[in-house]
Amino acid sequence: MIIKTEDYIIDSSSLNKITISGSMRLPSPLSYDQPFSLIKNALEESTDILNIDITELEYLNSSGITSLARMIIQARKDDKSIKLIINKNIPWQNKTLSSLQNLWEKLYIESN
Amino acid sequence: MTNQNINFDINFLPIDIISSWKRASLSSAFCSNLLNSNETPQHYINNTLSTIINECLEFSIKHGVKKTEQYSLSCFKDSKQTTIELSLYLISHQINLLKNYIKKIKLIKKNNEFENILFAKEFSELGYAIYSLTKDYKGKINIENQKNKEKTSSILKTRIIIKLNNKDMTHDYQN
Question: Of A67, A80, B44, B151, which is most buried, counting CB atoms within 10 Å of its CB?
Answer without folding.
Answer: A67
